[in-house]
Structures
1.
Amino acid sequence: MINHEVRTRLSADDFPIEDHLAYKIAKVAADPVAVPADTAEMIVNRIIDNAAVSAASVARRPVTSARRQALARPLSGGSTVFGVDGEFAPEWAAWANGVAVRELDFHDTFLAAEYSHPGDNIPPLVAVAQRTGASGADLIRGLATAYEIQIDLVRGMCLHEHKIDHVAHLGPSAAAGIGTMLGLDVDTIYQAVGQALHLTTATRQSRKGAISSWKAYAPAHAGKIAVEAVDRAMRGEGAPSPIWEGEDGVIAWLLGGPDASYTIPLPAAGEGKRAILDSYTKEHSAEYQSQAPIDLARRMRDRIGDLDQIASIVLHTSHHTHYVIGTGSNDPQKFDPTASRETLDHSVMYIFAVALQDGDWDHERSYAPERAARPDTVELWQKISTVEDPEWTRRYHSADPNEKAFGARAVVTLKSGEVIEDELAVADAHPLGARPFAREQYLAKFARMADGVVEPAEQARFVDAATTVAEAEAGDLAGLNVRVLDSVLDSAAATGEGIL
């Protein structure tokens, strides 16, 4: 890996295009290096993972709204939309499938200076692959790049410190991945990356206060923008440049300012793209920093015994967990039993309370309005708070994967004065956890989420298509779609009428 310093440059500076971060990303994307075998295997796992969470979310209102928007754009020779037959405009297929993937907050994650869900790259790349007749090997190569670029940006450039949403790293990564998949030249990918970044910078209000369905829509929008950006760049259209380093660019005005400097690691020429191996998926449908606390709560419940005897629970955790999903956010909505699912998903206090009571976590039951409103849950919920612990913050940002942690130490004080403590650094499903996810676990997650949603024969057909995707010939990727039972689609949540 090569570390690249990225900072603002004056318009009068001698700053050749080859030194622009977007150009360096484009060179990585255009590098014909082979995909390492373990990277390719993990990409297949994440394709399966995305299908699992899409099956679980397919009848929800935000997903249904996005799907109906896509179905209004039929296109012969186009792309597939999850759950249904037919061919549609690729950018709208990317949109609908991106919402399905993201709606339940249930797919892969990478956390460093910033945070991300790099599986959000899969819907736009699959859509473009289907439209353009790419092969399975082309798709694998493109996804290796997309994961690499997003994760490398996340390693070195913090967005949330400046209240910019994390999808600002997703637009460039998806554009770069599409460029790799289509075999585009460096200059075209450079322009697409710049356009995609320029159009995917937005504030973090989508994940603050009363959180709405836009939390799921924002990454899908970034994927759609990336498809459109590559399309324009292929037609010869350009982008603002230098997009990150310009005097009026992203760093100067949206991030750290004219004096800020960021270090972005990128693979050297000929170096295999392996970043996906540093990411991790979710066993539970909740914000990633809640994964270890859920497992910790399940582990502690027997030691605690009668939960009515709890006086207080304090979760000692990282800066990010405390301020984004903990009491450091100062969001009263995080204690509101009538809050939206998206808001409850970003309340570690609620999540810890329910996991402690139920000894389990379910993507539907754990968020049900009647579950959130249970008096005993509300009472316990109000007793839970978070504090930032510098050591947990340090471990959160550690570059050493063996030390990096996203968990917490729980201090439970009983009414008797007895104190019960325990801690968990990483979730059980994490690569260093008690039960790391491998192919078997990804397949089991798909089978569990698809049960009652997808016919068994269709499940088997998709699994075969996904596990052999690297062998798929050009134009043979439609099989990565999953047909959902008509009864499930008929039960989809009602939506309002739109313009189209």
2.
Amino acid sequence: MQEIATIDKLDIIQSSMSFVLPFGYNRKSKKDIIGTLSENGYTYFKIDQASDFHNYYGENIIVEGKELEQYFLPYIGQKLFPDSPAQKGFHRFSISIMKSFQLQIRKSILPFTIQSVDITLAPFGIAFMTIRVVLDDHVHELTDVLDFMHHFRTVEPILKEEKGAKVHLVDSGQRLSVHGLLFEVLCPFLKSYLTEEDQLKGYFGSLPYFEDERMYTSAYLVSCEGASITDTHLYRMGALDGRSPDGEAFMSAHNPAYIRGALDQTLHDRWAPYTYTVITEHAYITVTNRPPEEMDRELSQFMGTHYYNFLLHYFYKIMLLRVAFEYSQLDWKRDDEYVKSLIKLITLFSSWYYFQEVSTRSEGKELSKMFRQSFSIGQLFEEVNNTLHELYKNQESINSDRMNMLLFALTVFTVISGIYGMNLVIKDWETSASWKAFQQYNFYEWIALVTAISGIGLSTYLIGSTIGKIVIKRLRNRKAESRL
């Protein structure tokens, strides 16, 4: 009889979580957003002042700017840590919150504290909201921690297993959804800057090409010293398997061989048996059984260098999904200028931001490889390359057809004009001839009349279409600038 994996208990004595919410914004509103963030107490992050942000991560957790600088390749660091919002790159604004809340899931209540919030304005009109959360100091079983993460990351609950969670405001006693907490309590000013799309309703109408309506979860979990960390623990972390709708501990797989195979693709066990990291398309979680007082350095790296490594690859994934989505929406017959803007978008993204190697450290390279694998970045980028090839091929075909039609029209008029000795004038045209005169035209005069009228019409059309294309191109360029 085949062995069935069992759900093992694991006590978590400390949990530091980050929930990352991507959204779209209009590039034309960038200055307004920055002004609004400043008015609401957000501070612009500069790498040479990174240590000043120590109160954003928790007690004794300091992210050093020099470490961030040395972790990434120079051309990557310039993009991730620009000196001012006027430069191209990722612009992070942070604020310390330090407020207590409660998350009610069914009959259980889990107190938590929101430490800080980041708003990162990334290139091409994509932004990220990062909410840093810690559970209270009590010991929690792994199942409850995962259940907390599973429900808190759900911005718009749709499925049965996602529903039933409410956030309690300790001060007022008010109950809100996670969506309400984010956009009514933490960042109410952001709602007016979110881009809207017709394809999807609700929050993620902002990014209609995104795959679901949940935040990405990262966490650093500290278990009891010397505790045994099993494959089932690690698999459940990657899948965020907490509790089923009836409150029972849940795991989405029972076959130990399947679980082991999944971990072979998602587990970074360089520091086993003390520390493990699991990276999946839903979560990026590190768990350790070492004493908490010995983990300040590792937690600083998790909040600093590793966080930016993740954020960069998450940006890659969203941008590649965006290109695939916009390509699928093309109307080849009407969207000639849009095709050109999409070619420009792909080219700029590939040349400015997309790089295979991003880190100088061996661990950074290993994590980068895992992010690329979990996010299917290689496959998505290959599809984008194929898309770019098809766009160029289509543009060449369209331009060739237009040139052939123009040459055909010019050739016809040239031949006819040559037959007539470059003289298409009929004497009747020199006077105010009546329509009855046309009835007396011979065959050659009718050819001259049709040729003259069609020539005038073609010239008018060419002039009008050229002016129209110039106007449309300028309008499209203005719109494209808000996308880039």
3.
Amino acid sequence: MALTLAALVAERPLSLRVRAAEAALDRPIGWVHPTELTDPQAFLEGGELLLTTGLALDETTSPGYVRRLVDAGVAGLGFGVGLSHESIPRSLVDTAEEVGLPVLEVPRKTPFIAITRAVSRAVAADEYASLVRTGKGQQELTRTAVGKGGPGGVVRKLAKLVDGWVLLLDSSGAVTEASPSARPFADELQDDFARLRAGTLVTVAGEYEVVLQTLDTRARGVLAVGTREPLDAAGQHIVNTAVSLLSLALEQNREHSGALRRLRSGLCDLLAAGHGELATRTMKSLWGGVPEAPWSVLAVTGPASARRALADALDAETSGDKVFFGESGAFVLAVGDVEAVARHASRIGGMHAGLSEPVSTVDFPVGLRQAKQAAEAAKAERTPLVRFAEHAGRGFLEIVDSQAAQAFSDSLLAPLRHHDETGRGELVASLTCWLEHHGHWDLASARLGVHRHTLRNRMRKVAELTGRDLDSPGVRAEFWLALQVSART
């Protein structure tokens, strides 16, 4: 903490008296400079305590002299009495009070060198404290970075070291890491983030001064540091250390993520080539698990940027035993909890997905072909998702006589519609949902919002009314085609 005028006055051996602008004594002293020049502006940098005996000053010249000192940005004026002047010129005191320049009266017994030594000791102590704080902060950040804290730990540690908040933003301006209470500031910084191309930008968010600093990585990122007061030299050094550590960590993460992406693509190629056992064994060793078969294969296509965003989201938010995904050409492929994958794709937007029939790991190539065909159909129809069963059914209907197909549908579904119209149930909707979920009782009943026993009772009623055995794949196919015909009319 720099020595202030107030702290200097408090040093009793110096016997300094405040003669003007006492309210401004909180100013820090950058250095001490004695001079008898009436215009020393060319030799000042600002922040100095100027010392003079007023050799060339009188009541007439003092007001202009004070204003020149204010223009030069000096912290205050120390006026030595008992040599050139027995007391400080009245006009100098009045003008200094008017413009807010602190004036300290220095008695003859106090040599200027004593004041210089006092300030010098304080500056040296302040620089040493800054050096110690910088070194300690750099050590703490480094330990955090090489430990288990990672980028998130570095961000949180930096916030404590600068007594503020910290955000780590990715290339889109989204928050990837944040210290406590920092996230609400992200929206306020978006315009400044958009203006920043490289280097540093200082801005304001609420009552905080914010330093935006780009990271030295191939993937553009920005560190935002908010503090109530501007960063001092130690704070700036600590922030620069954090920037270097985060740049290195993120670049290593990027390389690691790239290697895993390529490995995922390779495993997709193994599955597509029929090497399911080798692929699943590798998945278990790398991610600790593999989604339970049979698999419905999901193929998602769209712009390259959207596919990358989907892969990033899946990498961050899914576990290996729930979802396996990988990139294959223009598709992101996934098995396991494909509904979660489809939701991610929907949030990103601009993507089209196809879903295969359930297949074993050995039959993955068949599921892959079905999923890609359905995805291409979804793209052509500009719809988010097409199931292969629907796509195949629509394709079959194109070659069937429409009148014959309609007659078949009306005949097969008539008992169910009559039952529903009399208000005794929802057989058509229940049958449709059950078939869409491949006869999976729990999934279908959850989608309908009924108990699985209720759904079983409805399917028994369907079999009773139509005289068809729903356990037969052929019967299920007939019902599915009948429902597809009905949906098209």
